[in-house]
Amino acid sequence: MTEQTYNQALVELAQAGLAALAARADSPNALKTAAAESHFICSWMAQSLKERRFSKLVADDLNHWIRDGRSMGAAANLPGLLARIDQQYRAAMDNHTIGASLQTMLDSLNEDDWLVIVDCEVSGKLKLDSDGRNSLIISVEQYEQHIAEGKLLQPITLYVRSDEQTLAKLATEHQLLLSAGNKKASLIKHHKAYKLYPNNRQPALALLVK
């Protein structure tokens, strides 16, 4: 039996939550306000966690979302979160040519006047003078050795300076899942480090479009 991946566990959770919300909406007495729906999903998540309905791979996510739902109420927008996960992850999981998709995204960034650098070794702290332009850097060793025949063979780190939601939308357009940005892990000043994994198999929640 094939072990369930994080991506599969996350999509299973998201689809189950959306199905529960849809079933609730069919009830004639159900309040259909954002606050009521968010409260419902928060309670559904708490019960799911208590009953261990889903893989332990998503237990930390559930704990985090439950805390957000209880502290933020409707502002947590848990139904919207599940919908975004379902949409973005299902598309990304169908993408079997991650390397080719990454190259297509890099080509589109060049056309949009981003500063794209893939021919420089990134092995220590660096500073890039980009004159305010959006920029993306991949170490030449990773760019040349981690991609073959359109496939991503090993993880790649992208160092990016841009509005994070702009990057999230670009990645989604090309069916790519990027890790959450990490400024502390970045070797390039004013950039965040993002990870791209073979087969889009992120070990934790990916960067999502809001």
UniProtKB/TrEMBL annotation:
Task: Extract the InterPro entries matched here.
Answer: DUF2913
Q: Which Pfam families match?
A: DUF2913
By what name is this protein known?
DUF2913 domain-containing protein
Q: Name the lineage.
A: Bacteria, Pseudomonadati, Pseudomonadota, Gammaproteobacteria, Alteromonadales
